Amino acid sequence: MKNLILLIALTLTCNIANSQSIKKKTNTKSNSVQYSEEKALELIADYYEFYNADEEYDNPVVRRISNNVFYVKVEYCSGGKDICYEESNGESIKKEFFWSSKVLILKIQSSTKYTVTVKANY
Known about the structure:
Elements: H1 2-21, H2 37-51, E1 55-64, E2 69-78, H3 81-84, E3 85-88, E4 91-94, E5 100-108, E6 114-118
Antiparallel strand pairs: 1-2, 2-5, 3-4, 5-6
């Protein structure tokens, strides 16, 4: 009888020890937000309006790379509206000679934080 009680006590002790050493599985779902191409265009407009105001840009084309990273191709002209456009019959016309194109990398951290860099070797 003592052996039976000792065996039951030993089994319970082993089960408790094993249950404490087993790690609980955690669900590690990513909480990343997928931003739209429209949001990317809004942020590029903000970038050129505030951070890069000395350049004019036109015809942005957005290509999604991941949930929060975009390539954005823009035509740009440095020097402001006086250099980049001419007035003809009350209409602004681009001076094509001064315009070039480049590809930007837009990385969105949140709805208000982002970084823009020029893509090299494209």
